[in-house]
Design goal:
The protein is α+β, with helices and mostly antiparallel strands and 196 residues long. Helix content is 23%, strand content 34%. A hairpin with a 4-residue loop joins β4 and β5.
């Protein structure tokens, strides 16, 4: 808790950016150290159509940018009401397996955070991410959730390659059929009829 109170001071000492650009966060879960970390906010990120697919939450403030490299950049807008008392955000993640639901790491983020990179997303399962706003008096807002599914890496490239190979085989078969038709019509002369 003391580290969260000292976060503004630590941000000022880092020298890598202003406090508005740096995001303090803590990951808790299996295999996570739970220490306070800092990351630079990706405020200028644009989801390009070839490498990214955006998924919007029902409330409109949470968005998941599903990238082709197996990661997801989560972005959000802070709530308008109670912005002065805002102390941070709680991010929870889970994904559905064949018979059970598994939890991802939970993340506590500082009030200056507007995005978080969820790395190591498995292709295929449906993920559910929920974000709650936390306030100084210990209360929290209702969570906004969204569901997404990551695409297998390189799948569009495989489809394009298979389509190109299939098209080339079809063209070759058409050419072979035309050659056979030409040979049988023009080059092979019918045998002369025997004279009586």
């Amino acid at each position: 808790m003391i580290a969260w109170l000292l976060a503004p001071l630590l941000l000022g000492l880092c020298g890598r950016g202003s406090p508005e650009e740096l995001c303090p966060y803590r990951v808790s879960g299996e295999g996570a150290g739970g220490g306070l970390c800092f990351r630079t906010s990706a405020s200028d990120f644009a989801c390009e159509r070839r490498a990214c697919r955006p998924v919007h939450g029902p409330g409109g403030s949470l968005r998941a940018n599903v990238l082709r490299n197996g990661s997801v950049l989560l972005q959000w807008r802070p709530p308008e009401a109670g912005r002065a008392a805002l102390r941070g955000f709680a991010l929870n993640c889970s994904w559905s397996g064949a018979h059970a639901r598994f939890r991802c790491d939970s993340v506590q983020l500082g009030a200056s955070c507007r995005d978080y990179l969820l790395a190591g997303v498995h292709p295929g399962p449906r993920y559910r991410v929920c974000l709650r706003s936390l306030y100084g008096n210990g209360s929290s807002a209702a969570a906004e959730c969204l569901d997404f599914r990551a695409e297998p890496a390189g799948l569009p490239d495989i489809v394009i390659a298979m389509t190109a190979v299939g098209g080339a085989i079809c063209v070759m078969l058409v050419i072979i059929c035309l050659l056979v038709a030409y040979i049988t019509e023009n080059l092979m002369q019918p045998a002369p009829a025997p004279r009586a």
